[in-house]
Design a protein that fits this description.
The structure is a single chain. The chain is mainly alpha-helical. Among the domains are: 64 residues, lambda repressor-like DNA-binding domains (434 Repressor (Amino-terminal Domain)), CATH 1.10.260.40; 119 residues, Tetratricopeptide repeat domain (Serine Threonine Protein Phosphatase 5, Tetratricopeptide repeat), CATH 1.25.40. It is built from 23 helices and no strands. The protein is elongated, with a radius of gyration of 28 Å. The chain starts with 6 loop residues before the first helix and ends in a 17-residue tail after the last helix.
Length: 447
Amino acid sequence: MRDRDDPEVIGRRVQRLRAQRGLTQRQLAEPAYTPAYISTLEAGRARASEEALRHIAGRLGVAFEELTTGRPAHLATGLRLRLTEAQRVLADGRAEEAAAQYGVLRAEAEAHGLGCEQAAALLGLGDCALETGELTRAREYFEQAEEQLAGESLPMRVPAVRGRAVAHYLAGELRYAVYLLESALDELNRGGLHDPDALLLLYAGVIGPYMDMGAHARAAQAAEFALALAPRAGDPALIARMHRSVARTLLAEGRAAEADASLAKAAELYRQLSLRTELANCHWMRGYVCAQNGELDRAEAELRQAHTMLAQSRAALYRSQAAVELADVLHRRGKSEEAAELLRGVAGDFSSERGAVHAAAAHRLLGIIAEDAGDTEAAEEHYVRALSLLERAGAAGDLADLCRLLGDLLRRTGRVEAALDAYRTGLGHRTAPGTTTLGPAPAHPPL
């Protein structure tokens, strides 16, 4: 990002503007400077002070920024306003429309050397790609944003780091997602860079990967830090996202009422901000809470609402993930055929590199439904595919449960040794969740 053009470029610009206005060098210089000084400046042989450039800009009738950088007056402010509008469009669930706006803004910012605005457009493009499930493209945009901000402080780079981590997390690369988030947290806290918004963004973002890896103690601690940081944060959308993430740890600790209350706070904030996709995700999480608490009728209603809203916003990957959660509730309510049909409808949206944890959940549930119908061969095939996906993702908590299901199936079909191997694998993942895959916890914030 450039702050000021070099003296030669500025000199030519001063000469051109002076000639356009029919001014002599003496008229431009008086009363504070000499014609000789203006001549030297126009020839590019002197680096003018800010005071001198402000005097010349005033005499020429142009903005100081336009004189020193060549950018039209108020360009950066106008770009930032349009970036905010693109963010609102994305929040309303119109990811493709927002991506088109961000693309134009990125090109304009690059053409005028506005580095921070270019990075903001890249972050927006990354968020749009996450929304539509284009994880590789999202990661590339976030990496480019981080490169653009390389000279800025870590708190400025945190949104790009968090975006990369989310892209890896949704692709099933849990350990790497945690590594990115923990590294940033450690650097912020050890370096005394205690930016509340940056810390809250990272702590809220790491809860999901922790939970899927079975690192429940770290997830609970991250949730406590996030709750403590929330009053200091200035971004209501960030606070709402935090409440939604924290609900997962509250639920894991058996605090269902508190989890529901946390999600209600998030929903209210999202309604105020008209963040449609985030509101849909909130309904999704509330449905999950209700399902874990045994309120299946309410869970089905919440998850259907989430699925409908995500379908309308064309958030493909999130919609498919919500469909898996809804199918689980439908199965538990005795609607197995509808659940299986829903799962088959979204199967093509997942892969080992795209939504691996929910892909595994879909295969697990299809296996259970097949086993209930007496089709043990199909059930085993689904369980094995789910096991492969979870092992790649490192989702220790889900692996243990799946190994039990596979072991029970193998035992019932007479393959005792194979069943024992499955049980042993599951027990290995039940031992000290998270401790075998994670290093030391990051430094704590000064709360």
